[in-house]
Specification:
The protein is α+β, with helices and mostly antiparallel strands. The protein is built from six helices and eight strands, in the order βαααββββαβαββα. Strands 1, 2, 3, 4, 5, 6, 7 and 8 form an eight-stranded mixed β-sheet that branches. The radius of gyration is 19 Å and the shape is elongated. The termini are far apart.
């Protein structure tokens, strides 16, 4: 069964950019600028080291302060999901529990107790009861907190792959916690969703170029 829990908490960790491209070469008839926009994230150059074309794709990359994105098509084609190192667990502790030594990724206060998301090793050392073991995936697009449809889109894709997902929304990015044994499949599913969104946009752009009369 698909489960989605939305926590509006900021993350205390930054994601490691372990990225590999799942995309095939784009059609040769596309303009250099368009190709730059849809190029895979593994080709993104460090900020400040890009030419006029690659600068288009450096703006929303890892660690850069970029404007938030709210349009669903733009969000989907620029998700750039990456996996953070390690395994993370969900656990519940008393509301007055000192979580300092746990260095939690996130916490959520509930009537029943304080839910914490922590590294598995820290949870083990603290003798916490593990409720859920997860791989942490970060979507590196700077998503607007008021955007509509992104969570539904990737949740639907993961549900179709029979992968449960718990979602945490940070100030800049969405963070997905999927079952530890499903991490690779979840990442592949998200990359496939992004690739299909990119190809759809490319096809629309190509069709526009073909059908638009030249002046």
């Amino acid at each position: 069964m698909f489960a989605s829990t939305c926590f509006r908490r900021g993350s205390t960790r930054t994601s490691s950019a372990r990225v590999r491209s799942p995309f095939s070469p784009l059609p040769a008839y596309l303009s250099p600028t368009l190709i730059a926009w849809f190029a895979p994230c593994s080709e993104i150059k460090p900020f400040g080291q890009a030419d006029s074309c690659t600068a288009i794709r450096t703006a929303p990359t890892f660690g850069c302060m970029s404007p938030s994105v709210s349009a669903l098509p733009a969000l989907l084609r620029s998700m750039h999901p990456v996996t953070n190192d390690g395994v993370y667990v969900f656990a519940s502790v008393p509301l007055d529990f000192n979580v300092g030594s746990l260095m939690p990724v996130a916490t959520i206060r509930e009537q029943e107790g304080l839910t914490v998301i922590v590294e598995e090793e820290r949870a083990r050392k603290a003798n916490l009861t593990v409720l859920f073991r997860a791989v942490w995936i970060t979507l590196n697009v700077h998503s607007d907190l008021q955007s509509v449809g992104l969570t539904a889109a990737f949740a639907s894709a993961l549900a179709q792959a029979n992968i449960s997902c718990n979602v945490l929304a940070g100030a800049f990015h969405d963070h997905l916690f999927v079952p530890a044994e499903s991490g690779e499949r979840a990442l592949a599913t998200l990359r496939d969703l992004q690739a299909r969104s990119q190809l759809s946009a490319v096809a629309e752009a190509a069709n526009y170029n073909v059908t638009t009369p030249k002046s």
